[in-house]
Structure prediction request, 180 residues.
Amino acid sequence: MAILRLSNCRGGEIGRRRGFKIPRWQHRAGSSPALGTKQAWFNPGTEKGLRLQAFFVKCQSILIRLNAMMMVRLQNSLNAWNSDVFPSTLKEEIEKLRSDVLPIAHVIGQGNKLDDSDLGVIVNEISDDPQQIRAKVGVFFAEIVDCVTCCGGNGMHDEAYCELEVTIDKASGEASFSPL
Prediction:
């Protein structure tokens, strides 16, 4: 009769798979905590815990305010919906926005800069459903090509173009932008 003895290891495993791994030095710790490491978090009952909790609440309120500030409302476009002036109104409102709101930086080359001081917009397609207005628009802008020999080291301007889907909420006028 053979007796198989299984001992419990530090991580709770039983050690049966040990033979399938080649033990060697890994140069650094992995993403999982090492065996025997206890997870530490703050205790809200202590002074330090109360300070951390207050800090997290303050951070959350700041993020909520920043999100509200970044929310774009295209109210004029919403008011012009179902009229002949909607495309031109949408075009004008988008041209006033900048690259911190519009997701257009993904089309420029690595190391280059984006000049959004003179955006051009064309409205390609418009549709809607009961809750939202959707428009596919093309955005023209300048890309400053990083070149030390061009234009006195300031880089040269090149035309850039990308297409976006604009979604406008019919109830609030809040707009979101997604690259196509």
Notes: The chain has a mean pLDDT of 76. The two ends are 69 Å apart (CA to CA). The first strand starts at residue 72 and ends at 73. Helices lie at 47-70, 75-79, 86-95.
